[in-house]
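Give me the fold.
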Amino acid sequence: MSYLDRAKELAPAIVKDRRVLHSKPELGMNLEHTVDYVYNRLKEMGYEPQRIGGGVCALAGVPGKTLLLRADMDALPMEEESGLPFASQNPGAAHCCGHDLHTAMLLGAAQILKEHENELKGTVKLMFQPGEETLCGARAMIDAGILTNPSVDAAVAFHVNSGVPAGAVLAFQGPTAASNDSFTITVTGKGCHGSRPDEGVDPIAIACHIHTALQELQARELKAGEIGVMTIGSIHGGTTFNVIPEEVKMQGTIRTFDNEVREKLRARMQEICEGVAGAFRGSAKVSFEPAYAVPMVCDRELAAEIKDSLCELFSEKQVRFVDKSFPGSEDFSFIAQQVPASFLVLGARIEEKEVYGQHHPKVQFNEKCLPVGAAAYAYAAVSWLEKQSRKTQEEG
């Protein structure tokens, strides 16, 4: 029986897992029910799971090369408006990004891998991760040792997409997702009466000059082939019409696909803010949020190997490379920073309904993609380990 056929047999269980998780969404690193559910399901399958870094880890196979399969588990801080009978029962939390599907698919893959454990030519490490939306879960699990004992040689992750035809698989190679650095600029002047600006230092005027000056970074300091976006999304200062305030706060984000560009923008931004503010007799301080993401770059060789293996499982029409990257951020980037990684999108569009994008309160996902994702996770691991084993034998 093929991996896809077995996944289709397991579809009722995978759907059940998804709906249980969907109805009880949890946020960030605090996934008590979700972690307990995943832990217990893995125990039922015969695994010896471990709680690590706020998530769950389990191993299948034998000593050898190790491939990590990652699924994120956290929800979004919003109200669900899907109208589904298994919609969120937790006010202020909703699975509107599809992480419940990822978790259910990897549980399905775990069942298949356990059934074929004696055929594995190495180790599969299952990583059920918290805190993707807050961009801190992957780092927490890395710090807790998810990439060691045994050491991980490569990693694979899937993400569903409500706008892509159900069952289609899109593979990325090279620069894939943008970095994400959220920042606050605090501009300090000297408050005074609005009729006597000469007695103060106007932080609102300084903030305007800073905003204009920052645009020059993209226009004049990045090379033609470099991509970097800096956006100021919030400016707040003052409380009334006739008082120049003491302080203005500006908030925004930096997105890039290259770590050198990222570091350049961060450094120059601080220089510009401090310099412009100083020129107008004020001061400016730039602070970056602790939650951030580095650019996600997929290993081209691994991406090709995973794509080829999935073409064996499905068809070449169903699996294809995507030439463009996406401006959103993904904390799988921290895994990809440490080991060769492959990131794939799995289509989950419902054709007969209006399509809403991820993070929309009315978004729905086609559950027909669940066995496809489970089979893809499992077969990608089995196939990659088998190829690595053959390479080792040939080299030996």
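The domain at 3-176+295-395 is CATH 3.40.630.10 (Aminopeptidase).
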